[in-house]
Amino acid sequence: MNHATREDTDHRDTSAAGLPPSGGSQAGRGRSAWPGRPESVRYTPASGGEPVQRQMAVLMRSDSGPPQSSDPPAVSVVVCTRNRGCQVAGTIRSVLASVGTDIELVVVDQSTDDETADAVTEWSDDARVRYVRSDTVGVSRGRNLGLRLASHPIVLITDDDVEVQPDWARNFRTAMDQAERIAVGFCRVVAGPYDDTRGFVPNHAVDEPLVVRSLLSKSRARGMGAGMAVRLAPVLAMGGFDEELGPGARMRSGEDRDLAARCLVAGWWVCQTPTAEVVHTGFRTWGEGRSLARRDWYGIGAAYAKHVKCGRWAILPVLAHEVVWQGLVQPVGRWLLGERKAGPRRMWYFVGGLIAGLRTPLERPHLLYRPATSNTVEPCRLAS
């Protein structure tokens, strides 16, 4: 296992992504041996840079196509974890058991205790595993740190309560490779065994392959962060995940859908594939489900508020789908059928997040919410 140092996060050469370097020497990314107890790493997201539209134009100009090689395709996998103890060990084992592709696994540990650090020492001699202990809070911050440590152009993302199928990485990489303009992908997330009299396990069904090319069609590719893929260069160029969105952040959730929508705005595409599958074991009781619905629908509303704020009216069909169909018609129908987990409250959570997003200052170049500590307000203006 490789222990990531501060230099790994601060000195990554991002010139291939059309980005200015993050600072410091670019002589390479040093790796040190596992020292016993990993030290904490602080991460400050990069800021500034050229407008995202100009970066995207540079990144999408390619005459030669991807390099040909007889070696298996390689992918990086990012797993963020917080206070899950040894549960993440099952995720690690399943990722390292992947077939048909070379794996680099980046584990970002945001825990407040040492249980996870103790659990992952099992892989201290495995060169495929990079472990970093971080005192950051929030899944988006953790994922951004993982992206900046990743070595390969395609990065797969999953959660610490998930086990991936052996062909997940290979099939997901194949789906992302079908077009160079695909920047974000989602896969099938199936629920592991559970007692449906006590609660449920969140899942995401994908019945057929799909490529979405515009914000207008965003509602066709909804996705779930437990089974996600990104093309590293364009995603880093647009600032990565919005760190004000997602579990542990001010806006609570919606970071996965937000990144997909921002990619579509910038001219990139989003895909879904049924051939890549992960098994989610994150059981929630019905009471926990109500809290989860409040968190998720609030964050989704906040994520889509950006596009309303910027006058991107192509988001209106997406809002109609989320509010009317997903937030009202479907839950009311399930409620009438006697399903305990359904109800129309999610619509109100969505509206609350939408209002909060409309009130929050937005950084125009990357469509990122300004951190709460920022005192500078920059209004959003439409691109000319």
How would you characterize this protein structure?
The protein is globular and about 50 Å long. With 384 residues, the chain is of the alpha/beta class. Helix 9 (286-309) runs parallel beside helix 11 (345-358). It contains eleven helices and 16 strands. It has helices at residues 6-10, 52-60, 87-96, 115-119, 139-149, 168-176, 232-237, 255-265, 286-309, 316-336, 345-358; strands at 2-3, 32-33, 40-41, 74-81, 102-109, 129-134, 154-159, 162-164, 182-191, 199-200, 210-212, 228-231, 269-280, 284-285, 362-363, 368-369. 33% of the residues lie in helices and 19% in strands. The strands form three sheets. Strands 1, 2, 3, 4, 5, 6, 7, 8, 9, 11, 12 and 13 form a twelve-stranded mixed beta sheet that branches. A two-stranded antiparallel sheet has the order 10-14. The protein has a two-stranded antiparallel ribbon with strand order 15-16. It has a single domain, classed as Spore Coat Polysaccharide Biosynthesis Protein SpsA, Chain A, CATH 3.90.550. Strand 4 (74-81), helix 3 and strand 5 (102-109) form a beta-alpha-beta unit.
State the main characteristics:
single chain; 384 residues; alpha/beta; Spore Coat Polysaccharide Biosynthesis Protein SpsA, Chain A; twelve-stranded mixed sheet; two-stranded antiparallel ribbon; globular; disordered C terminus
Q: Largest beta sheet, briefly?
A: 12 strands, mixed
What's the helical proportion of residues? Answer: 25-40%
The structural domain count equals 1
CATH-level-2 architecture: Alpha-Beta Complex
Treating each run of at least 4 consecutive H or I residues as one helix, how many helices?
A: 11
In the CATH hierarchy, what is the class? Answer: Alpha Beta
Write down the overall mean pLDDT: 82
CATH homologous superfamily placement: Spore Coat Polysaccharide Biosynthesis Protein SpsA, Chain A
| SSE string, helices as H and strands as E | EHEEHEHEHEHEEHEEEEHHEEHHHEE
**Shape field:** globular
